[in-house]
Structure formats: C-alpha cells, structure tokens
Amino acid sequence: MTSSTTDYSGIAKRVIGIEAAGLAALADSLDGEFSRAVAMILETRGRVIVSGMGKSGHIGRKIAATLASTGTPAQFVHPAEASHGDLGMVTRDDLALVLSNSGETPELADLIAHTRRFGIPLIGVASRPDSTLLRQADLALVLPAAEEACGTGVVPTTSTTMTLALGDALAVALMEHREFTAEHFRTFHPGGKLGARLSKVSDLMHREMPLVGLETPMPEALLVMSQKGFGVVGVTDEAGRLAGIVTDGDLRRHMEGLLDHKVAEVMTANPRTIAPGQLAEAAVAQMNERKITCLFVVEDEKPVGFLQIHDCLRAGIV
After folding, report:
1. Are 199 and 91 in contact (CB under 8 A)?
2. Where's the CBS domain (predicted)?
3. Considering only CA atoms, which of 30, 74, 70 is closest in space to residue 172?
C-alpha cells in the first residue's frame, strides 16, 4: 500500500485518545493549588510574565496571549533573552508563570534566580514535584504522569496539550471572576471577523438622521427622504420621541392623494428600534427576523442614530 492510499486515521485516533486521557488526568488532579494560583494572579499589581523554553515556550506564548486578550495583563519573556537583558522587563509588581515539563530546563535558571532575588511571585508548571523549578516556586502546579502520544515518549505531545489546557483553565477562571464579557473582549480584539461581530450599534450607526415632525406635509417629508438618501424618514413627536417611520411600503399604500397627507397619516407607528449599546449582530438578527432593512437607534425613546443592513454587511457582520 502506497503512502497516498494508507489510512492514517487509526494513528490520529490513537494520538487524540492518549492526549484526551492526559487531559482527563489533569482535570482529576486539580485541587486547591489551582485556586491559590488564580488568587495569586488576581492579587498581582503588574503583569503575568510567562516563560518557557522550546515547545513549552510556544505554549507559553499562547497562554500569555490568551491572558492578555481576556483582561489579565501578560507578556511572554523568552528565557534566553531574559539572560541577556530582558530580565529588566520583570518587575517586583509582576508574577512569573514558568513552564517546563521536566522542571530542569537550564535556560530558566537566570529567570528563576531573578524572581527569588527580588521577591517576585513564581508559579511553576512541571511534571516532576521534586524538580528544581517546582522546589523554587512559591506555588507548584504539577502535571500528572501521562503517556506522550508519540509512541517513543520523547516528543512533547500530551505534556504540551495538558500545559495549554491548564493555561486556558487559568484564563477562563480569571475571566469569570472578573465577569469579563464579549464587549470587554472586543476592546482587546478590534480587528478581524471576531472584532466585527462584537461591534456595537453605536460603532456603525449614522448620526445624521432623516427626521420630520408629525404634522410635516408629505411633500416636505419626501424631500427629506431624498436628501438623506436612506429611503426612509423617522417621525418625532413634540417631545422629540420617535413616534413612527415612513418607508417606501407606506408610500405605496397611500399612493392615492399622497401629497395631500400629513406624515402622521402615512407613517407606521411604533417602529422597531434598537439601543446604541447593543451588539450590531443583534441588530442584524432583528432586521432578518422582521424582514426589514433598517432600524432607528433610540435612547430614552429619542432617536440618536440610524442603522441600515448595508452598514453591517460592510463591517463584515453577516
């Protein structure tokens, strides 16, 4: 059988099964030390400095990025660069989260010594409780003994998966404690499709609105509709509250003698609206559900903006 026809799915299933068993063992091993780690991070006035060498370093970069994007200031510091000046990035206000499966990675020695010299809290993550890293750490998070998925026991596979999952668990625990929301996440992630999905109505709405009063003659209302270019006009009462909306459908329903009417006689009363603080995705859902293409944005019953489905599509919200 050639390589092009060999079925490798059995290998994939074995690897995933081994790593899944490792994750289950990690979940079972978590105890009060994990809660203490979360409390230590919450008490940190500075940043979480994440460090690790080799594969642990790659995992560390991801953990630092996840923490930073979910409300916990964090930075990855490469241990080799730390020994050549980057230790200056690690201050007394920070906390070090150091990763090493063996706990004996020599490149970490200077960083560990720096934390001990200046009283910087150190959380160590390793699989050997008696390792140098965990003996020096203020708090040890011990990875359970688990088979690496490579078959030889030398390629970091299950161990790195467990470390990554442990980092995610820390980040989510911190998020839930801080009541971190999608709106908060958008503050740290304004770009890309995710950033677009988390845009607020106020980010996309038009602030120059087509508005007329209840007693406005229809010829004047049609002029406003044409000038603004939205194809609709909002109708406000004497207190400035949104009372209705005139759309092309309303115009068709009142074609006979249209120009002899007042706006109040033609408009659709109590139109659908949305608040400026809601997600634009919610506005799209409402427009799709009601089969409409625009919404007035209101605050305290008064119009503050206008949103069209095209504004959302241009922003990448579908």
Report:
1. no
2. 205-263, 267-318
3. 70
